[in-house]
Amino acid sequence: MSKAFTREDEEGAENLPDRPISSYRNLVTAEGLAEIEANLRRLREEEIAAQGDGDTAALARVARDQRYWHARLQSAELVTPPGDTNEVRFGSTVTVRRSDGTERTWRIVGEDEADPARGTLSHASPVAQALLGGRAGEVVEAGPGEWEILEIS
Predict the structure, then answer these.
(1) Of 5, 13, 99, 125, which is least surrounded by CB within 10 A?
(2) What is the per-residue pLDDT for 13?
(3) Residue 135 to residue 147: CA distance in whole angstroms
(4) Taking the CA atoms of the chain, what radius of gyration do you get in angstroms?
(5) So where are the chain's domains?
(6) Is residue 114 within 8 Å of 125, Cβ to Cβ?
């Protein structure tokens, strides 16, 4: 590859756009806060390695990600797990049944820690928004169907 192409690619990398920051409150669980801090530590190690390698593209990516995670750390609002299980709140684990009979269990967490495939759902998601404040036995509408709240823990 020509050096001209390499330099051009490296220069373009310095202008990476910032990662978008959500307009929702940055509610986090203790685990979510620990993940933010771990990301910042990992990025610091990546920054040191990229500096040693003279990898400007990696430095630009790391700088962008550090800005994101620093902003998330600054705006983080640690929420302790709910003490009662009478209604769905941030940090609750809720089991629901869709109108087609499918059951799902999710813990409602912060946006950065959400992974529905692993059983965590962002408090900002439409399903979580529909569930928040609900009680066992209630039916809520979210997306194309209805969800019955079976259990809150």
Answers:
(1) 5
(2) 54
(3) 12
(4) 20
(5) 3-78, 93-152
(6) yes
Round to the nearest angstrom and report the end-to-end CA distance of the chain.
Answer: 57
> What tokens does 42 get?
């990992």
Q: Which two tokens stand for residue 122?
A: 């962002």
Chain centre to alpha carbon of residue 74: 15
Asked if residue 146 lies in contact with residue 139, where contact means CB atoms within 8 angstroms, the answer is yes
Question: Using an 8 Å Cβ cutoff, are 70 and 40 in contact?
Answer: yes
Quick check: helix, strand or coil at residue 18? coil
Residue that the structure tokens 């967490």 belong to: 109
User: Is the dihedral angle over the CA atoms 122, 123, 129, 134 positive or is it negative?
Assistant: positive
pLDDT tens readout for residues 61-117: 999 999 999 999 999 999 998 888 999 999 999 999 998 899 999 999 999 999 999
How distant, in Å, are the alpha carbons of 11, 39, 44, 66, 77 from that of 52? 18, 20, 12, 18, 35
**Per-residue pLDDT tens for 7-16?**
434 444 567 8
